[in-house]
Write a structure and sequence with these properties.
Chain lengths: 160, 265
């Protein structure tokens, strides 16, 4: 089936089988390998992208279902001014080691902070539960998201 | 892993969808349970009927005091609805416990009900609320009480040629409070057990448990006890009295107590 998906503002076309997962379309057809594929059963969150601005597991959507829709992947997160505040905070707070899970965390949390700019730490911890990290132990990730949330609220960059 | 090959149809209306249903067809709504099963090749359907194009089934409306939920309504929409929060707060509480935000963006109310995972929160909440389910086939419509829909894990009274089109939640008694308590290893994980409660000031109550048996079920003895003036812990003990496993029985009793107390606050 012929599909066309807008990814980070650019149209990507491809011929896919009905069974092709959106995650594979993004990586293999569009060539955007920033989106990672971990468990392929909806548990790890590594493949999280935004479909029309909302976070979704790209391994749990068929590519044909994204036909005509708009996607944002990790490659679309940084603006012209450089890194997104979340990306910068992850870097500075040591919120990653191997980095495999990071794109999923960032795409999840960008959407979450847009909807919940004043989330408390407990709420952030719940919101992070949909993404697994096997390196960091999460403390750096929680700190990074808090820093980024403060910066996005216009309260400086959250640095000590 | 990747899904096995299947034929794919994406009808754009209920009328177009109904003739496609049957033994060979599997319905794809939000896909948050079906696609993992395809990826793991636990499901190998001949035909996948994708009903995401059935925009006519995506609605939340208040009609004569009852809430009508189109089967394709996303769990995230239910969670965000102010109408739901004001008049059926149990549904918002239950929706927030369904998987993770990334799952609820796609997952649908009808899909959660029709899939009938024994750990699912929405079916449990709908039973406590006394909801009715509307099923449609080429032969016509039928309506079934949510408490009679579930037969076993992933097994319901829905026939292969039927499409779940609507969930109707009746108006709740004036001043009724709601509580939902569950035990899961981590937030968003499948629950081991849970309890949903709606309790009115006069003691009229709807209580349902998940994890107490192979399907979510009403706890009628606990409902009667509350109506008769029993304390939350007394009613909770009755809710799980038929659960055989000792740990599970203790868990259900405690969760029922928390849900009832939350509803009474």
């Amino acid at each position: 089936m012929r599909i066309s998906v807008e990814i980070n503002g650019q149209a990507h076309e491809g011929d896919v089988e009905p069974r092709t997962l959106l995650s594979d379309f993004i990586r293999h057809d569009a060539g955007l390998t920033g989106t990672k594929v971990g468990c392929e059963q909806g548990v790890c969150g590594a493949c999280t992208v935004q479909l029309d601005g909302e976070p979704v597991r790209s391994c749990l959507i068929l590519a044909v279902q994204a036909n005509g829709r708009s996607l944002t992947t990790i490659e679309g997160l940084a603006g012209e001014g450089g890194l997104h505040p979340l990306q910068r905070a992850f870097h500075e707070a040591h919120a990653l080691q191997c980095g495999f899970c990071t794109p999923g965390f960032l795409m999840s949390m960008e959407a979450y902070l847009r909807e919940h700019p004043h989330a408390e730490r407990d709420e952030l911890r719940d919101a992070l539960a949909g993404n697994l990290c096997r390196c960091t132990g999460y403390l750096g990730i929680i700190e990074a998201v808090e820093r980024a949330a403060a910066e996005l609220r216009g309260e400086g960059d959250g640095r000590d | 892993m990747k899904p096995p090959r299947f034929e794919y149809a994406a009808p754009s209306s209920v009328e177009e969808a109904l003739p496609l249903l049957g033994e060979a067809a599997t319905l794809l709504a939000g896909g948050q349970s079906l696609v993992p099963m395809l990826n793991l090749r636990l499901a190998r359907p001949e035909l996948v009927v994708d009903i995401n194009g059935l925009a006519e089934l995506d609605y939340l409306s208040d009609e004569d005091g009852a809430l009508r939920i189109g089967a394709l309504t996303r769990q995230a929409t239910l969670e965000r609805s102010e109408l739901v929060a004001a008049r059926w707060p149990l549904l918002r509480k239950a929706a927030r416990l369904v998987g993770h935000p990334q799952i609820r963006t796609r997952g649908t109310v009808g899909g959660s009900v029709a899939h009938a995972d024994p750990a699912a929160e929405l079916p449990t909440a709908l039973i406590a609320l006394g909801a009715r389910l509307q099923l449609r086939s080429a032969g016509g419509d039928r309506s079934v009480d949510a408490s009679e829909f579930f037969l076993g894990p992933l097994y319901t009274t829905r026939e292969p040629a039927e499409l779940l089109v609507e969930v109707e939640v009746p108006e709740q008694p004036e001043g009724a409070g709601a509580g939902f308590a569950e035990q899961a290893r981590t937030h968003g994980d499948f629950a081991t057990a849970g309890a949903a409660a709606v309790v009115a000031p006069d003691g009229r109550a709807g209580i349902a448990l998940l994890g107490a048996g192979p399907t979510p079920a009403r706890a009628e003895a606990a409902e009667r006890a509350l109506a008769g003036g029993a304390a939350p812990h007394e009613a909770a003990a009755l809710a799980a009295e038929d659960v055989e496993d000792e740990h599970r029985s203790a868990l259900c009793t405690e969760l029922a107590r928390r849900a009832i107390e939350e509803a009474l606050r």
